[in-house]
Amino acid sequence: MVDYRDRISVAVWIVLLGLTATLLVKMPSTTLVWIAFGSPLSVELSTNMLLGALLVALTASGTEAVVRAHPLAREGRLRNRWILWALPCAVVSVAALLLPTAPTRLNWLVGLALTGIAVALTLAATFHAMARETPACRTARIVLSVLTYVTVLLLFLVVYRQRARSLVSATLIVGISALLALELLRGTGRPLRLVAVHALIVGAVLGEATWALNYWRIPGLTGGLLLLLGFYLLVGLAYQGLLRRLTPRVLLEFGLVATMSLALIWLFAP
Question: pTM for the complete prediction?
Answer without folding.
Answer: 0.85
